[in-house]
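JOB MANIFEST
job_type = single_chain_structure
chain_count = 1
residues = 441
[input]
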Amino acid sequence: MLTKYFALKENNSDVKTEVIAGITTFLAAMYIIVVNPDILSKAGMPFSGVLTATILVSAFSTIMMGLYAKNPILVAPGMGLNAFFTFSVVLSLGVKWEVALGSVFWAGIVFLLLSIFNVRTYIVKAIPKQIRFAVSAGIGLFIALIGFVNAHFIIADPATLIKIGKIDSVTITFAVGLIITSLLVIRRIKGALIIGITITTLLAIPIGRLYGDASSVNFGLPTLVTWNGIFAKPDFSLLFRMDLIHSLALSIFPITFAILFTDMFDSLSTFVGVAEAANLTDPDGEPRNVKESLIVDAAATTVAGLFGSSAGTAYIESATGIEEGGRTGLTAVVSGLLFLPFMFISPLLSVVPGIATAPALVIVGVFMMKPVLKINWDHFDDAVPAFISLVLIPFTYSITQGIIWGFLSWTTIKLATGKRDEVTPMLLAIDAFAILALFVS
């Protein structure tokens, strides 16, 4: 039944491969279960309530992505969107978090309408092919950078912005894990990324116990792998706490628009980038089941407001499961189901440290770079905007900024060089909203 529903044979996959891919994707993205509550709790929301909401949003949205859109994409509250919610909207502008949740809900409703009436699908089709290739490669660099940062192999520096981290027990363990994971992938070992995560976790256990100290990288704790018990009760206190009336105020409109635009282009970029890298496209070269995928993404933002979290979005970490061979919605269903037990056993998340999943993210960065070969480097009117989009994604730590400036530079260069036929009316409309987004976000 699973084979037929998810068309496993047609996608050259099987149940075992999809299950391994789903587990891999979950392991790469499960950090959101504790990181999202940590960020949103600074807005005055209860940590345990946000944790429960995060799990509900992630499980519901990812399972729906698998069952309805049949794509191997994980959907969860988005990083960046949660920081915008907390620091820009609540703490900086002084908006009550209940009103901010209402804004998330209304942004989701607008997403849903745009998706149902195919507007977002038209937007996807308006993205130039060269920009699509660049976005995929840019996401590859971005996700690799996240891996290096999570391992503290790359750290911030006031003089040079970033620099190599201190060579210590943490970074050496990461480097060893990266080498082992790379060799497993090169030798095409089934479940290579999961095995790599497991081995790196085991290698991290002695840190702070037998040698080294992880205090500087693990919130003051001397150990990387910690044991905080097993069970914790779910907290449903944030369900339906959004303020739907005051969030419709004219003064809140720029906030709703910023959530709408950022979430939309983060998701579009992820769908396009992952589809290009993994060849998950239809006969016309468009991302597979894009309308259904965008409807699910819109629903994720809507239910995020209902459940008590910042907006949901597609996760670039989905590429880890795809690299393991995940090609159908069964991968997403497995990932989504894995969130549910953590409604009750969230303390177990502390067992897998950030450096354990970091090697997998770096390897996926390699995987995501494939489309860079398709960029037309011999024609600068194609190469320049593609390059701008590619490098700005990791340099600005934002997929949205990379694609915005890719669009704007593409349009400007093509019009200036007399190639107006390569600038569609839809692209011009996107450019207008992109410029507006730069000023309101």
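[summary]
The chain has one domain: 2-440.
The chain is about 60% helix and 5% strand.
exit_status = 0
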